[in-house]
Fold this protein.
Amino acid sequence: MTELPAPFIERTRRLLGPDYDSFAAALAAEPPVSIRLNPAKSHPTEALGEAVPWSAQGYYLPERPAFTFDPCFHAGAYYVQEAASMFLGRVISQYIKTPVRYLDLCAAPGGKSTDAIASLPAGSLVVSNEVIPNRAYILAENIVKWGSPYSIVTRNEAADFARLESYFDVIATDVPCSGEGMFRKDPDAIAEWSPAGVTRCADRQRQILDDVWQALRPGGLLIYSTCTYNTEENEEMVLYLMNRLGATPLTVDTDPAWGIAPALVPGVTAYRFMPHLTRGEGLFLAVLQKPGEADKSERERLLDEPSGKRNKMKKGKVTSPVVPDEWRDRLAAPDRFEFVVHDNSFIAIPREYQADYRLLTRHLTLLHAGVTLATAKGRDYIPHPALALSTALDLDRAPRFEADLSTALAYLRHESIVLPDDQPRGYLLITYHGFPLGWVKNLGNRANNLYPQEWRIRSGYTPDTIAPLPLTHR
């Protein structure tokens, strides 16, 4: 590992005292490898590894496989996530029992958003936001692959959400931080660290919390987390939420055997994952409740406001739908959805959130929402990747071809593939181990590969041996 900065060593030694040497030794060791299954898509056919104790779907793997060359990874069957971050699912399971409107404010690349989708009560709406454009598109890709129709991806500043007063029941703020908890995995994080950077991050975190606080309903939950160790960005930020904004810290049920450390500042309730105590990277997490009683009137006022403002979903135009039945019927339960047409694309929105969709398009920049079914092109309709990857797809209504590993990898590289002569003409769903990957248009003598160029496997190298994880589609 790259040598740690001297100021970091000095600060952290003061913070941890006699535990510092164990901490430093852990940073020099190999990090564990862990994944979290998508319970809406995948089921293990054999043991994957040791379970992550605080996660219902998390597993430590005995070694790091070549995830890039596992088609199940690209199908959204699982997410590669460090184990400490999976603690979010534990928080959600303890405190959230009915469907909610949930915001993941700083969501890229999508690990905590996909955990929230999997852990929240069925019917919850998850809005995942990222302000940096290239990271926002990576987030959208990962959310589409996870497959939930109850998801929306936005690209906005934290201050933009203040317009949605008291709209969200839960806001998760995995705020940009100095990244000390990533030192073991990312040498660039070490090179970029400085005491001045810690101060800048803390200032930015306070601004983000001030900006988004208005969007949380009274009585709602704010989940604050970082991947860093210092108290300026952690305990002191919790004290800011308590003293400045009146938030009340909540406890999370844990097992002492997990090795989760308490807060390092008196009066703060929080949870520290330290690499010398837990199998994972650095994580700090606190759960706080906004003062006041739950009141739906403000949200109802927002949902009822006039809809004449400009739609901002990729600056496109939303019109009344004329969606052909053949595309509605690709969904397993089309009656559960309302349909819109956006720039010639047919989009299915869960019926109970149609007013929310209209509200969010008026105030935010949307990159993804619900399930995009198909795009009209002349007299043809081209099926969208989001439909292939959605858990709302009715697989019995989609002609499909089950690919072997080499064909699946060629497809994921956006290469031409050849289908057997007995395959039907037209649009086919390419699957691997039952997991949908995307669409081709079979012309007989060739098949047009419709996998998105921007998602393709860019590596021309293929390992001599590939062992995809032993998973099957639910």
Notes: The radius of gyration is 23 Å. The CA atoms of residues 45 and 470 lie 5 Å apart. The chain is about 25% helix and 25% strand. The first strand starts at residue 33 and ends at 37.
